[in-house]
Amino acid sequence: MDSSETPDINMTAPDTDAAAAVALDELTRDEEAVLADDGHLLPHELMAAIEAVLMVAERPIEPRLLAQLVEASVEAVEATCAELDSNYREQGRGFVLARVAGGYRFQSHPEQAAYVERFVLEGQSSRLSAAALETLAIVAYKQPISRAQVAAIRGVSVDAVMRTLTQRGYIAEVSRDPGPGQAVMYGTTALFLERLNINSIVDLPELGDFVPSPDVVEALEHGLRFDNTEAEITPTNTDTTDADSADAEPVEAPERAMTSGSAGPAEVATPAVDDAPLSEQSADEEMVIDLRDSVTGYHDAVASDSEE
Asked: Contact at 8 Å (CB) between 201 and 188?
């Protein structure tokens, strides 16, 4: 056989790897064509559609609603959102695709919080008061709860605070008490979950984390007992003025001049007279002195006549 008629095996044999790649590419195109014919979005189209919807949404969008919008299954939407979030984090983007309040939304990356806070809080000072935060915490952990029950826990009226929280959108009416009166029951809203960046109420921190340890409680009780002991040892005397007044010596009545005689009064009052010169005494005092001298002279004269 002529050597020119011998086939070159290396030139005519197909490359196995290249053939496999071509076959895989053709299969992928066929699958995409089938998906397109069925009206389903392709993977990259599904990502783009989800990004577009979440970009204009003001609230977190639930997976079921997203699935209805993009005409895909809930599992496919959740997997696509997880892949998008992973891609954003790997690329070091300034935003993430987070799942909060039972849905998905775009939000800034936690590492960029300082810059976002500087922008959002510029010129704003509207914050909840301590009373509002306390009331909101009671509603969050005790919901559903009525307004009267919140007031009983706090010990004060909560009408104004509950009205403020309702206007802010943090709490809302969720049901009515089946008991007498059918009181309105309140609970937290999705906006509350958004502000706390949690997916549901079960993600709230445990109350046990905020309870003081036994050592702290014992120290507080010891301090209270010490304060009560001091209060018992040091009584407060509020009747000092009355006691002093009772122990004070009585003021003696002014001396009375006793004059004996057959005529005239039995006794004449002699008011006390200062030893100051007459020029320094008032006119009333001078008149009293003159009257006393006249009476005394009259009684002396009567007494002399009687002896004679």
From this structure: yes
Using 50, 70 and 90 to split pLDDT, how confident is the model at 181? confident
Higher pLDDT, residue 261 or 219: 219
Domain residue limits at 277: 256-300
In this structure, is residue 232 part of a structural domain?
A: no
Q: Which residue has the higher pLDDT, 28 or 71?
A: 71
Specify whether 111 is located in the same domain as 165.
no
From CA 252, how far away is CA 255, in angstroms rounded?
Answer: 9
pTM of the model: 0.41
- We report the CATH number of the domain holding residue 84 as 1.10.10.10
CA 66 to CA 70: how far, in whole Å? 6
Q: How far is CA 119 from the centre of its chain?
A: 25
> 151 and 95 share a domain?
no
Instruction: Tell me how many domains the chain contains.
Output: 3
Question: Is beta strand 103-108 parallel, antiparallel or unpaired with respect to 95-100?
Answer: antiparallel
Asked, for residue 94, whether it belongs to a domain, the answer is yes
Give the integer Cα–Cα distance in Å for 236 and 72.
80
What's the rounded mean pLDDT across residues 104-128?
81
Question: In angstroms, what CA-CA distances link 95 with 108, 110, 112?
Answer: 4, 8, 9
Is the N-terminal amide bond of 144 cis, ω within 30° of 0? yes
Domain limit, last residue, from 152, 177, 210: 210
Where are any strands of DSSP class E within the chain?
95-100, 103-108, 145-146, 171-176, 184-188, 256-258, 267-269
Higher-scoring residue by pLDDT: 14, 285: 285
